[in-house]
Amino acid sequence: MTLKLGVPSKGRLMEKTFGWFDRHGITLTRSGSDREYAGSVSGIDGVDLVLLSAGEVPRELASGRIHLGVTGTDLVHEKLPLWEQQVEEIAPLGFGHADLILAVPRFWVDVDTLDDLDAAAAAFRARHGHRMRIATKYHRLVHGFLREAGVADYQLVDSQGATEGTVANETAEMIADITSTGETLRANHLKILSDGLVLRSQATLWRSRTAVVSDQEKAALKALTDRLQ
Ligand SMILES: Nc1ncnc2c1ncn2[C@@H]1O[C@H](COP(=O)(O)OP(=O)(O)OP(=O)(O)O)[C@@H](O)[C@H]1O
Ligand SMILES: O=P(O)(O)OC[C@H]1O[C@H](OP(=O)(O)OP(=O)(O)O)[C@H](O)[C@@H]1O
């Protein structure tokens, strides 16, 4: 049996992951056309490449279908409530840096902090008869963060992409999303709450704590982790 290494199947995250392994003497290759999700590993024995969506890596690690996987801290913490029991962080990879933040329209001049938001959310509910909507795909993390902050008068609306556009589109009053350069927030006239940082994320190599590992796979895992030291 071989060790299964799950890696994002496209985009910047895939290219940078390939580059990172390359620098450790392990070559990941995508075979066939751009659309064929198959690949191989050379430079080390007994490891198979599994190409999949970054968003699916946490679930695959938790179910034990892959032994190792690369994805962002944000996706692991969001999708695996018991992540500390299900996965072990092997190495932060030094790219894919992004902050999960809360942002409101720039013209909300009286709202700069979570306390301001709490007051604005109560006023919003009194005026409109429904709770302020926060668009996000990070339901668990945002809910936990706002509970800790004592903010309760809100509802989450699901947004799986182009989240910053939901305010202009009037499907939400504010958003919680990841930002890296801040350009998307600026372009959509949004500002980050000064104490609205939910999580700092970066691409990370994880090991599944639940995957069953044969002796042969154990040897491959040791060879791989030794190489990554
Ligand atoms: N602009 C960015 N800068 C840095 N990192 C980012 C940026 N956008 C996303 N990421 C990170 O990349 C990872 C993948 O994010 P994304 O949400 O695109 O995954 P996904 O939805 O699974 O992708 P897919 O389109 O393959 O389904 C996340 O960990 C995220 O934090
Ligand atoms: O701070 P910035 O550098 O502008 O980056 C932030 C943007 O990057 C991500 O979107 P992505 O491009 O992955 O598309 P998505 O909206 O479909 O998730 C994220 O959701 C933000 O929209």
Automatic annotation (TrEMBL):
InterPro entries: ATP_PRibTrfase_cat (IPR013820), ATP_PRibTrfase_HisG (IPR001348). It is an enzyme of class 2 (transferase). GO terms for biological process: L-histidine biosynthetic process. GO terms for molecular function: ATP phosphoribosyltransferase activity. Keywords: Amino-acid biosynthesis, Glycosyltransferase, Histidine biosynthesis, Transferase. Residues 55-229 form the ATP phosphoribosyltransferase catalytic domain. Pathway: Amino-acid biosynthesis; L-histidine biosynthesis; L-histidine from 5-phospho-alpha-D-ribose 1-diphosphate: step 1/9. Pfam families: HisG (PF01634). Catalyzes the condensation of ATP and 5-phosphoribose 1-diphosphate to form N'-(5'-phosphoribosyl)-ATP (PR-ATP). Has a crucial role in the pathway because the rate of histidine biosynthesis seems to be controlled primarily by regulation of HisG enzymatic activity. This is ATP phosphoribosyltransferase. The lineage of its organism: Bacteria, Pseudomonadati, Pseudomonadota, Alphaproteobacteria, Rhodobacterales.
